[in-house]
Amino acid sequence: MNRIEQLYEFLKNDPKDNFVRHSLALEYIKIGDDLKARILLEEILTDSPNYIGSYYQLAKLLERLNQISLAIEWYEKGMHAAKMEGDMHAYNELQLAYEELIY
To answer: What is the pTM of this model?
Structure first.
């Protein structure tokens, strides 16, 4: 069983497990299935806006797809969420990526 199949098996037990969904999205990114990765990351952030790590991954994915305005929006949402959660490490990572994109 490959990694993606294993992750789907885990999701059968808990379809809303953000860690597993995020891991699955990263696997899709690795194999170049950006659409499936994007859908998963957007679902995570819709269900759990405080799942901070997914903001960075989604924004980076959108950057690669040359959807710059959407990437900027997701970086901004992520910075706001990180600040609300008091996660300054994530905030700084998001801010750095955001600034590299806009400047």
So the answer is: 0.95
Residue 101, pLDDT score: 97
Which homologous superfamily does the CATH classification assign to the domain defined by 3-102? Tetratricopeptide repeat domain (1.25.40.10)
For the chain, the domains span 3-102
CA distances to 57, 75, 76 from 102, rounded to whole Å, are 17, 11, 12
According to the model, what pLDDT value does residue 1 have?
Answer: 78
CA dist 23 and 47 (Å) reads 16
Q: Do 63 and 28 form a contact (C-beta atoms < 8 A)?
A: no
Kindly compute the dihedral angle of the four CA atoms of residues 75, 76, 80, 82, in this order, to the nearest 10 degrees: 10
Confirm if 36 and 28 have CB atoms less than 8 A apart.
yes
